[in-house]
Design brief:
By secondary structure, this protein is an all-beta fold. Helix content is about 0%, strand content about 40%. Strand 8 and strand 9 form a beta hairpin.
């Protein structure tokens, strides 16, 4: 592993059992152009500290991800979730997710996890399903057709 120490010099170090072989090391903050922790053959890809209590990852000399002192995460490009059933859970300060957003078999769904409801779905055919009341105070622009059905 290569890292830069406070005097700005680079040092090669061996990590043994998860620790530097010669004790603890403090790192310079680094930058987008060259992280405090970087790869010997790829110096513009690594980890650095852009601010007090913050950490960031840089790839190709450009900030890709930042976690600030408030634990807010910032992604500077697309986020790709790849799995058989990609899902993003939205959880407030409680332990259980309140909502999830997912794509299953070509159906984009917003699910109310707390009540096991599916208030919003978009199908590959273009059909939009809204389960519940629709507040159209600002108006709705419909370019094709609108089908309204009720179960009550």
């Amino acid at each position: 592993m290569t890292y830069r120490i406070f005097d700005g010099t680079s040092q090669e170090e061996t990590i043994v059992n998860g620790r530097f072989s010669s004790g603890d090391r403090g790192l310079v903050d680094g930058s987008e152009a060259q992280g405090a922790l970087y790869f010997a053959d790829d110096k513009n890809t690594g980890i650095y500290s852009p601010e007090n209590d913050g950490i960031a990852f840089t790839t190709a000399g450009t900030q890709a991800f930042r976690l600030n002192s408030n634990q807010n995460a910032f992604f500077y490009k697309d986020i790709n979730i790849e799995s058989d059933f990609p899902r993003l859970y939205l959880t407030d300060t409680g332990n259980n997710p309140d909502y999830s957003i997912y794509n299953g078999n070509g159906v984009f769904t917003i699910k109310d996890e707390s009540n096991n409801r599916f208030p919003f779905r978009v199908y590959t055919s273009g059909v939009v399903q809204i389960d519940g009341n629709l507040d159209a105070t600002g108006g709705i622009d419909i370019t094709k057709s609108l089908e309204v059905s009720s179960t009550s």
